[in-house]
Write a structure and sequence with these properties.
oxidoreductase activity; oxidoreductase; PQQ_synth_PqqE_bac; PqqA peptide cyclase; 9 strands; 9-stranded mixed sheet; TIM Barrel; PQQ biosynthesis
């Protein structure tokens, strides 16, 4: 196999600590069992190595990256290396003083998350009272002259609010709005019945988005992606496993996809014991699903294999118990019925008008420890 190109996008998950408890958090369900964090010198070294490999874009994420007191130091180092730096934050802890310091350090871009356009739902979904604070932080970000992406994870509770969410983004002066339909990994997988939308909700929300796009043009660019479960063909996982994305978890575990930590049998390398070059080019974890040589049938004989590489490995594992299976989102998969069944169960839950409060498991240290011990193997649990 030809050597891979550079990992253009480095995602540094600086910490799993977070003051919020989102019911759809993409952090691993067993995050509370991984509380070690790289120190400042180790992160600086990771950034230096990644830049030498050709990485150009750096996402600083978590958990909540503002909980790291050395965030400004890390941003300054990354900026000095020539990275385009993006802070991905809930906004909690983003004060006027920290924004000024991040400006001096050279931070390029901020992505601020909201859970909804209403205080009630925003605060319910994050299990905190943070809506008003986030509004103040959005104003501060703009006052400091930053381009801002507003991010809102969508599911059946807030899809009917899409118009109001767009209005909120316009009012705040966001240049981009990412309406990120829930992908069902991590905590969202635990809550899939409570979060799964209906086809009608998705169609209506998409129509609202298209009407706004036609009306507001480039004033705010809106990204809206239909969730995998409502497609007939899977997406190319991470633009192709080991082609573009390199994630590093708080404890130094290197990840070909931010959810890959749950995959059994994948010996994930750690930046504290191996060089980033070796990890990216030669490690089994990054080689395992790189390219198409490993594809099972019918993907191996399918015309679409170059477009989707057989879909998402984590989705395949969660739905079939086998990370090397074809993604059951594909309607050529013998397991596609499992996707349809989950969508149907979501519809039934909606029809039975279960209240939001019932059936949601919020991200917390206690729930993380409980769920991962129930799973019996560090949070690795599939539907099989
Ligand atoms: S999704 Fe919510 S709980 Fe998870 S890291 Fe982001 S803000 Fe924190
Ligand atoms: S059969 Fe495999 S390669 Fe073909 S469309 Fe489905 S997932 Fe993609």
């Amino acid at each position: 196999m030809a050597p891979p190109g550079p990992p253009l996008w480095l995602l540094a998950e600086l910490t799993y600590r977070c003051p919020l408890h989102c019911a759809f958090c993409s952090n691993p369900v067993d995050y509370a069992r991984h509380d070690a964090e790289l120190d400042t010198a180790q992160w600086r070294d990771v950034f230096t190595q990644a830049r030498a490999l050709g990485a150009v874009q750096l996402g600083l994420s978590g958990g909540e990256p503002l909980l790291r007191k050395d965030l400004e130091t890390l941003v300054g180092h990354a900026h000095g290396l020539g990275f385009y730096t993006n802070l991905i934050t809930s906004g909690i802890g983003l004060t006027d003083a920290r924004l000024a310091a991040l400006r001096v350090a050279g931070l390029d871009h901020i992505q601020l998350s909201f859970q909804d356009s209403t205080r009630e739902l925003n605060d319910f979904l994050s299990s905190t009272r943070t809506f008003d604070l986030k509004q103040r932080v959005a104003r501060l970000i703009k006052a400091h002259g930053y381009p801002m992406v507003m991010n809102c994870v969508l599911h059946r509770h807030n899809l009917p609010h899409v118009g109001a969410i767009i209005e909120m983004a316009l009012e705040m002066g966001a240049e981009y709005l990412e309406l990120a339909n829930t992908q069902y990994y991590g905590w969202a997988w635990e809550n899939r019945q409570a979060l799964m939308p209906t086809h009608e909700q998705l169609r209506e929300a998409e129509a609202v988005v298209n009407a706004y796009r036609a009306r507001i043009g480039n004033r705010c660019k809106i990204l809206f992606v239909v969730p995998d479960y409502f497609e007939q063909r899977p997406k190319k996982c991470m633009n192709g496993w080991g082609t573009t994305f390199l994630g590093v978890a708080p404890d130094g575990v290197a990840l070909p996809c931010h959810a890959a930590r749950m995959l059994p049998g994948l010996d994930l390398p750690n930046v504290t014991t191996r060089s980033l070059r070796e990890i990216w080019r030669d490690s089994d974890a990054f080689q395992r699903f790189r390219g198409t040589h490993w594809l099972p049938q019918p993907c191996r004989s399918c015309d679409s294999q170059a477009q989707d590489h057989g879909g998402c490995r984590c989705q395949a594992f969660l739905l079939t118990g086998d990370a090397a299976a074809m993604d059951p989102v594909c309607d050529r998969s013998g397991e596609h019925g499992k996707v349809m069944e989950i969508v149907l169960q979501g519809r039934l839950a909606e029809a039975q008008a279960r209240t939001r409060e019932h059936g949601m498991v919020f991200r917390s240290d206690g729930n993380s420890l409980r769920l991962s011990s129930e799973a019996g193997c560090a949070g690795r649990k599939s539907a099989k």
